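Thanks for the sequence, V.! I ran Methyltransferase domain-containing protein right away. Repeating your input here for the record:
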Amino acid sequence: MTAQPPQTPAQPSYWNQAGGQAWVDLQDLMDRLNQPICDAVVAAGFPGAGGAVLDIGCGAGATTLEMARRVGPQGRSVGVDVSAPLLEAARAAAEAQGIANAEFLEGDAQTFDLGTAAYDAAISRFGVMFFADFDAAFANLRRACKPDARLAFACWRSPADNPLAGAPIEAAAPFLPPMPQSDPDAPGRWAFAKPDRVRGILTRSGWRDIEIVPLDVPTPIAPGDLMTLSLRMGPLGGMLQQADAATQAKARTAVAERLATYETGGMVAMSSACWLVTARA
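Predicted structure:
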């Protein structure tokens, strides 16, 4: 489970306000849950010691810092994100960990000047599904990469493959106004659920040797932590903030009761069903 902002073009606004702050507050938990996915992306995108790597939608920097350690002091790991709060956390983490070969840029990777043929690889952990124009974004990333550079990113499969993702809002729905119908192809968590769509975007934007394979990662989580994520990291939290106290209490109780049905031995055996996508420039 990970952040799911409303499916809207206003991604920078979301990530610089409630969404970014929620992620900063819950960073340790999110990094712990997503570490296996981080490891898979870094391994698939690693260009060798001394390489230069671009991390798209780097957030608070976990994948950027992991890649910086992998490429070593002669290499570069550059994270780019639209969220100032997350980048502030990333820079603080780099300083605290003494990682001097990581740097962070604030900007939208769809339009930001990332240079030309500057990188040996581009990676992302859940950071590529929110662009307003996917073709333009991946064309910009390709321009930033050297010929034959690696591309490796993780994205979510479908809601049906991740049933727990929808459980909280289903439980709270009877107490809240109807959720607007979302477009599954719009920028958002599920935008890359269809592998043929991803393949088409990459092909049109100049990538080749495309491979898309399932990445299923057990992510067991304590019920209290899952409750916190459900209420802060997704659209449900925004709706609850607009509700009166009585409605909030009913919805929270319903969510807690629903999530308790998945609990075994004090933990929820959650699994993250993703795609691991790789290609070459």
